[in-house]
């Protein structure tokens, strides 16, 4: 993709040279290790820079995509046109009494660890979720009986026009693995969680137990997007896939995990195309065998390569 020098100069003026990468390989920024190039990959360091970049994308009529830490995401092999923004440099976490205020780019795992340090209970469930705070709000992340909506009080976001808004948790319509953040095009800048004082020993025991469960059951030795499918009502996705004899099924370098059927792993330099084909194959097989529709939890973004 030929570089748009005009846009490059403007992005550098808004942030700095160290925060703007051209034709950056997105497989370097996703847990699946899949994905083509981003025309511009931008990592702002302040809320104002985030606002200015959105306004610039609007003025220049340039495509704009928000990328979290890439844990619940598949980027197609053709990459993403325009500006891709990552908020990894906005990762501060602070505590104010029983409230924790975490910036969007902080890992939700780190917020749960900070809560333990501050002797606060409520975020133990998040100790194994690999996503960022922004991503956790985006999909109301949850595990082991807890979810973000249980502890979220409010959030600071930027809207499509680049304006700052403070919203309550209720205004996000948080439900099972969904929110209205994508619908409104919000970009999360920070989240405020309200927790309770707890016994650090008891908190640590719960977190250690959940970490053990995760590490013993999940195929963490290979790149993957985490759990691929939402839990269908009355069923478990992994069990349906297992009972369809799909464990070990491989298309190219992508494989249905032998350790946990709800995961698809990048076993041998898979392409996004192979990974997505395997997702569709699993959905089709489970539908034929059990008449159950497996709905994707993972997001798929980007373009197919030009042939």
Characterize the structure shown.
The protein is of the alpha+beta class. 29% of the residues lie in helices and 26% in strands. The protein has helices at 5-14, 47-60, 108-117, 133-138, 181-184, 200-217, 237-243, 272-290; strands at 20-25, 37-42, 64-67, 73-75, 80-86, 93-96, 99-103, 120-121, 142-143, 146-147, 152-158, 164-168, 187-194, 196-197, 224-227, 250-251, 254-256, 263-266, 299-301.
Structure keywords:
307 residues, alpha+beta, Uridine Diphospho-n-acetylenolpyruvylglucosamine Reductase, domain 2, Uridine Diphospho-n-acetylenolpyruvylglucosamine Reductase, domain 3, Uridine Diphospho-n-acetylenolpyruvylglucosamine Reductase, domain 1, 3 domains, 8 helices
Number of strands: 19
Distance between the termini: 14 Å
Instruction: Provide the spatial order of strands within the biggest beta sheet.
Output: 6-7-13-11-12
Radius of gyration from the alpha-carbon trace, in angstroms: 20 Å
CATH architecture title of the largest domain:
2-Layer Sandwich
* SS element count, helices: 8
What is the global morphology?
globular
Cofactor: FAD
EC number: 1.3.1.98
Subcellular location: Cytoplasm
Protein name: UDP-N-acetylenolpyruvoylglucosamine reductase
């Amino acid at each position: 993709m030929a570089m748009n020098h005009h846009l490059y100069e403007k992005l550098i003026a808004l942030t700095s040279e160290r925060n703007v990468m051209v034709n950056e390989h997105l497989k370097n920024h996703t847990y699946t290790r899949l994905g083509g190039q981003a025309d511009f990959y931008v990592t702002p360091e302040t809320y104002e820079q985030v606002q200015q970049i959105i306004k610039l994308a609007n003025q220049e009529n340039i495509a704009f995509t928000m990328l979290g830490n890439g844990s619940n995401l598949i980027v197609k092999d053709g990459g993403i046109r325009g500006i891709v923004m990552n908020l990894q440099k906005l990762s501060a976490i602070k505590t104010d009494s029983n409230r924790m205020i975490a910036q969007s780019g902080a890992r939700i795992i780190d917020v749960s660890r900070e809560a333990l340090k501050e002797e606060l209970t409520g975020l133990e469930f998040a100790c194994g979720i690999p996503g960022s705070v922004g991503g956790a709000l985006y999909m109301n992340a949850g595990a082991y009986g807890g979810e973000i909506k249980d502890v979220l009080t409010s959030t600071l976001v930027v809207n499509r026009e680049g304006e700052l808004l403070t919203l309550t948790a209720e205004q996000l319509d948080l439900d099972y693995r969904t929110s209205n953040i994508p619908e409104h095009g919000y970009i999360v800048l920070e989240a405020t969680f309200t927790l309770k004082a707890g016994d650090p020993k008891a908190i640590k025991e719960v977190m250690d137990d959940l970490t053990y469960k995760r590490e013993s059951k999940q195929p963490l030795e290979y790149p993957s997007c985490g759990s691929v499918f939402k839990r269908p009502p009355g069923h478990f996705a992994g069990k349906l896939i297992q009972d369809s004899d799909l464990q070990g099924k491989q298309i190219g370098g992508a494989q249905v995990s032998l350790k946990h059927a709800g995961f698809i792993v990048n076993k041998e330099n898979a392409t996004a195309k192979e990974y997505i084909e395997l997702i569709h194959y699993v959905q089709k097989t489970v539908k034929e065998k059990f008449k159950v529709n497996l709905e994707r939890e993972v997001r798929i973004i980007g373009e197919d390569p030009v042939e």
